[in-house]
Amino acid sequence: MKNNPSYTIKKIPSSRQSTFDIGYLGVRNHHMKALLELDVTHGRELIRHYRSSNKEPISFTGWIMKCISQAVAEHKSVHGIRKGKNELVIFDDVDISIIVEKEIDGEKVPLPLVIRKVNEKTLQDIQDEILTAKEQTIETAEDYVLGNHPYKWVMRFYLALPQFLRIMIWKHIFKNPFLMKNTAGTIVVNSVAAVGNAKGWVIPVSIHPVCFALGSIVKKPGVFEGEIAIREYLYMTVLLNHNVIDGAPAARFISRLSGLIESGYGI
Predict the structure, then answer these.
(1) At what angle do helices 247-262 and 60-74 cross, to 10 degrees?
(2) What is the pLDDT of residue 254?
(3) Among 35, 103, 172, 190, which residue's beta carbon has the most beta carbons within 10 A?
(4) Is the pLDDT of residue 142 over 70?
């Protein structure tokens, strides 16, 4: 870091190189965008009751991931990945990538964690993997991909390459649905609410077939069981790849996901 009376120059952490690449590639995807306002009052009440009864932590984000995995398991086409011009690979397993903030060289940076087969895991299983990633020590560039990732050893070489070569690597990954799933999962969940109070919708970019951005939870009046009451609402943005799914099945998926979340599914 270099200081001047009128400005400061800071070194960009090497771990952010992959963020630049995802942004460059993500804006080229044909995503449909849905801005949802979901009543999570019941779900949050159940989470608080679970924590007090079981004495075990489960997070709001982990519960949302479980709801997402169930909705995707029932509507598998939403996380399909194109193979060539005329084929679509539709996976049974729901692998979800999330972002965990870690400190590297004094800077807080977002690092990816892929949780495999979320549709088969319990809420406690999901929470345990998230907590393990948060506690993971960052020692080398290989640790910039959290958890037991099959290709984490590649990271040290990837970050040393110029961007045009890194982009070529990603384009090669995109051509192979199985490699894409093993590398980054098929779904990504970004939780802005965990680090700030953003009253509104966040519009992300993503390389994944399905992307979720969780905004703030806001208390405000709403209609519940025919009466006006103060309820808790989550701002959620959903991106769905229009190249693999049309509007009607996308709407059915959104409807099912909304029902699962508002009913407190899985707790």
Answers:
(1) 140
(2) 97
(3) 190
(4) no
